[in-house]
Amino acid sequence: MQVQDPIHLLKVEHDATLAELESMELAVADLNGARRAQALATLQKGLDFLEHEVRAHGQLEEDVLYPALDSMFPSRPWMSCWRSTRSCGGDGPAPARDAQARTAHQ
Question: Of 77, 54, 53, whose CA–CA distance to 66 is shortest?
């Protein structure tokens, strides 16, 4: 499927992410049952999806969507927060935080 409208593309990707998360949630319920192997496979597939597709989606939002919104609504200070921290929590630039998270989980 090819999506021409970038906003529609982001919505399609959001919907796919929600569907993947729902599938993972259902798989967790099967971890202690007879379908454990299938549940683990579903969870691994979901983790792969989150690692690759959702990370790319988030990067697209940060690189394209947020700067566009920031330029359209310069009086909204919350938009500029995304450029440096992904949130206004002040816990550092996103790439550094991502690298720290990956290092901590290894």
Answer: 77
Tell me the pLDDT tens digit for each residue of 75-103.
765 555 655 555 554 444 444 444 444 44
pTM here is 0.60
Q: Where are the domains of the chain?
A: 1-72, 75-106
Task: Enumerate residues 6+ apart whose C-beta is below 8 A from 39.
Answer: 27, 28, 29, 30, 31, 33
Q: Closest Cα partner for 83 from 64, 57, 56?
A: 64
SS3 (DSSP) at 77: helix
CB 81 within 8 A of CB 69: no
The answer to whether 81 and 44 are in contact (CB under 8 A) is: no
